[in-house]
Amino acid sequence: MLHSISFSQVGLLFFTSLFLSILLVPMTIGLAERLGAVDHPKSRSSHSRSITRLGGLGIAAAFLTSCSLFVSFDMFFWGFVAGFMVILLTGLADDVLNVHHRWKFVGQILASLLFIYLSGDTLENLGNLVGGGDIHLGMFAIPFTVFCMVGGMNALNLADGLDGLAAGVAAIAATFFAFLAWEARAPYLILISVALLGALLGFLRYNSHPARLFMGDTGSLLLGYTLSVVLVSGSQIHDSAVPLTAWVLVVALPLLDVLLVMGRRMLRGCSPFSPDRTHLHHRLLLVNLPHSTVVAVIYIAVSFFGWLAILLRDFPDWVMFVTLFVVGFLIYAFVFELQRNVIISRNHWEIRLLRGLKQKLAQWRDRMNHISFYAVPVSLSIFGLLVLPSLFFPVVMLSSGQAIAMIMLAIIIVTYCHNQKKENIAILHGTVYVALVVLMYLYNLTPESQANWLHIYVGCLSALATIWIVLKMIFRKGAVPLQASSFELLILFISSFLPLVFFDGMNFSDHIVEAGRYAALEAIPLLIVTKIYFQNDPKNHQWVVRAFAIAITLVAVRGYLA
After folding, report:
1. Which backbone phi and psi does 38 adopt, to 5 degrees?
2. pTM of the model
């Protein structure tokens, strides 16, 4: 419990926002078509067909509705909502009417001023950035806060250049912000961050590559505004354990990118808002990395900055400040060097030092080629063994609220992957991993005094899956699709972050923390087995998710009746 909120309340808020987003986002397609808010392919576009761009309206509706149900209506929230509505109208005007960037600036500045005026929050104390004591801005706090908030909005706006990029970056930032808000003892910021995360995951169901719709400026400006509000308010809490620099580190990559791009444009004598292809994601595309790989690489880089924020939050401010620029410089120097000197093939990556080993493995594959015929039956056997404990093995006792939450999660899991097309198979893979983690967590949550052998059973099942994966990698060329999509990486990050990091900062028992950690790790080989099955039997596999969801429901019902 943190002041007036509990983990159950946070979880309910997340599920509410996620479900509303899944429901409302696709409704914007018809509205966008009627209003003419359609993005047609251009020379700089990453898509080859016309796509609607009002998905951000669905994000806004899901997010604001969820917050209204769970966040108390004080002056901070009224200030946040006032600025939110202004930036929402600004983004809508641009998506429908294509307004000049000067008018967008007016809306961004007005939204920032409304939030500052009503909430009273500003960036007054920047911390000890240069080692000579805290820097207080005094009368310059308001203009500096407006400048930073406008910069944050434009950073997310300009990052929205690839399918799932801006939404994924914002989801990762919201995850880290929720943790930092917990450390700073700011329950209202936790709720806002979690509501934003749920709305974004619902939106990514339709925006992951290949995208069915775009968020448009309505969405990207709202993401920048919301993250800026959390950063400003969270970093200025009196006696907070989390300094401003830690918050900035989380969103350092998009901020550095927009600063470098705009600075380079002005040095060339161009407008800082003139379009070009010099953003980080454009440079990665120029070295022939596939679309989804570029998004995954940026996800990893943003996550790395977030981990730095957590690891260095107890260090002096100037250490984090220097680290930010050093790491940023190294990343961009590597990308620039890669762009100049390296040519990467989309379809083939040959490592000469491993050619001899590959030849030997090829001989082994020829001898053991028949092992591929067992991919489907072995995978199905592992699925059956995984679902088996939900039928009659001992389960953990659950309260009515916990059982309802698990059933709600099972329903959302089925809804999330419902009617996904073949090209959006990454959505199915990511959803499978969520179901696996939850199911493994429920199994591991059973006290050892009741079912020590159940823990051994689950561990042996994960080990069996690992052995099968190794055999497939050795004896069958190309049998294991090790490449993960950007959406899968995002799901892996979020589902691992909670048990491995977030649970430690809460007053959970060691048993709950360990159950979460084991679940996150043991589910990985089972997910790869699922990918092997999907590859060897390429049909409609939504039944796999339904089977796992039914198992979760059975455990929830049996746990409540126990």
Report:
1. -125, 135
2. 0.83
